[in-house]
Amino acid sequence: MSILNGIRVLDCSIAMAGPFAAQRLGDMGADVIKVEPTSGEWQRHASAGGATGNQINVSFLSLNRNKRSLAVDLKAPEGKALLLELVKTADVFLQNYRPGVAERLGVDYATLSAINPRLIYVSMSGYGEDGPYRSYPGQDLLLQGMSGAMLSAGAEGQPPAPAGQYLVDAITAYSAFEGALAALFHRERTGEGQLVQVNMLDAIATIQMQELSVFTVGGKPQSRSAEAHAHSYIRAPYGVFATSDGYITLAMAPLAKLAELLDEPFLATLDAERDGWTQRDAIFSAVKARLVTATSAEWLERFRAEDIWAGPVYGYAELVDDPQVKHNGTFVEYDHPTEGRVKTPGFPIRFSKTPSTIARGAPLVGEHSREVLGELGLDEDAVTRLVESGVVRQHA
């Protein structure tokens, strides 16, 4: 048995952040019902990297395991009535509609909490439920640019560089996941449900707790160096450096020890806490000039022997094949009925008594419509009528 067995989640979200949050709940055993349009959720039709899959593209596949699909037209009165019946049975309702859409559909918190006062209603948005930006599109790259984070790394005069992952979507998903769990815990104590609101702007701002506090409390400006320093608020050396056969990362190495290992006397004349800030470019240049004289493996062996913080720069092929990643079981494999053998990132949280599992892969559109509606008490003829009228879709 997994830790959230017995908890039912209605996932009415699209794209990445909402579905990812709901998937985490499903991984822990919750019964997640993905309520999607009869045409299928948006992510089914937008394949990242062109990885279209057989019947399910990889984007959707990666964000929707451990869910059942109910495909229903919520704009049809009968379709909306089915959702409201499901709300009576639910513990968590999760949506990331643009502000105002839930009210227009009649699935806002006030409406649903009146039906089920114990409901945890998780509402996700780009910038907040109100305010001057409430109607702006909340997309990952846009929020990365707005967050200030792009100007904390890289070289002065060079274009700002986005993260190599969908960073804002991911941290927003985890914020929603955390909020849902905390609200469920509160309900266990008090019996009352509540509204949980998460927005992408606050999520990406608050994970920069140290950086923004250095600016707001410490009064230190966010200034990039001429060299491609990895973070404006960390002393040199700190960044990615070329070797004779690739790249390594090097973080805050003691300058005296580094001078010895690199055979670079200049570094030994410097004070790390003073010159590590004021002479970032000179330090970076000196280290850069020495590291290209040997291979990545050679430098990492030398640095690790002296407890200097350094590591490899991987691509995905190296990450998947890394011995620690294999030891941790970071990736899981399972068989999907249409997509075959699936290898994908697994579970970052481990429970000794209630482990996360994969009970099912990502569903086909409406794959579980008949099953879910049967649980509401509708008989076969009633479900067939809904399917034939187009209110509900059942996968063939």
TrEMBL record:
GO MF annotation terms: transferase activity
Domain of life assignment: Bacteria
Keyword Transferase: yes
Pfam families per the UniProt record, alphabetical: CoA_transf_3
Keywords (A to Z) from UniProt: Transferase
Xref: SUPFAM superfamilies: CoA-transferase family III (CaiB/BaiF)
Protein's name in the database: CaiB/BaiF CoA transferase family protein
Organism taxonomic ancestry: Bacteria, Pseudomonadati, Pseudomonadota, Alphaproteobacteria, Sphingomonadales
